Amino acid sequence: MDYLIPVIIAVILIALIIRLIDRRSAGEIGEDRVSGILQKLPKEEYTVINDITIKNRSGTSQIDHLVISPYGLFVIETKCYQGWLFGSEENEKWTQSLYTEKFQFYNPIQQNRLHIKALKFNLAKYPKIPYYSIIVLAGSCEFKTFEQVKTPVIYDGDLPETIFELSKQKVLTEKQVADIRDTIQNIAIKEDGYREVHVMNAREKAVIAENEINNGTCPRCDGYLVERSGKYGSFYGCSNYPKCKFTKKMK
């Protein structure tokens, strides 16, 4: 029976590889779908940049879609999932419930906060630009906790309407919009393999964030962590609350 062990291990590895490929393919399909929707926006007011990687203070940020307009910048994170999704504004991870299985993935709202932070870093000469974070669900999933989020979490068909609703007041001139577009395109990382570099940087940032937490520092705003008590017990919260709402469960 010992000969069955390598076979079982091989089958498990193949299944995991197939799942990873399927998830990546689904993600790319979702991004392509959203790209097509964004291309229908009025081009005289909205400039769309898809799949762009820029540098931030400690590494890189990969932005699915960026829309530059006189009304501000729309930063769009696309997720393509099936099943039911659960999550709140401040959860570190969200949960996907698919049949009898459950999976966790990083909170896309917090992902987009980092993307906006990277944009602000590179567009420091425009300190008053409005940034609009939008999370688009492009798959066949159903988001079950809308009441727990303030950031727009929408289905792909609702994206144009959401952008138009947020486009209330023009704050940038045509010249400024063109300058921001050119700046973003100039700082974009174009080298081959940048996605792999971005993934490596993301892993490094996760380690750095964990070290900061262990040292009592908020990884989101560099405040310090203080012990607090809540409905579900004790936890660490940022000293800059309510401006920063980072929390970490106590072990």
Order of helices and strands: HEEEEEEHEEEHHHEEE
Oligomer: single chain
What's the helix count? 5
Helix content: 25-40%
Rg (C-alpha, Å):
20 Å
Mean pLDDT: 83
- Strand arrangement within the widest β-sheet reads 1-2-3-7-9
Broad shape: globular
Explained architecture:
The chain has 251 residues and is of the alpha/beta class. It has one domain. The chain is built from five helices and twelve strands. It has a five-stranded mixed beta sheet. Strands 6-5-4-8 form a four-stranded mixed beta sheet. A three-stranded antiparallel beta sheet has the order 10-11-12, with no helix packed on it. A hairpin with a 2-residue loop joins strand 2 and strand 3 (72-79). The longest helix is centred in the N-terminal third of the chain and has 35 residues, at 4-38. The chain is globular.
Secondary structure: elements and pairs:
Blueprint: H1 4-38, E1 47-55, E2 60-69, E3 72-79, E4 84-86, E5 93-98, E6 101-106, H2 108-122, E7 131-137, E8 142-143, E9 153-155, H3 159-166, H4 174-187, H5 194-214, E10 225-230, E11 233-238, E12 247-249
Parallel strand pairs: 3-7, 4-8, 7-9
Antiparallel strand pairs: 1-2, 2-3, 4-5, 5-6, 10-11, 11-12
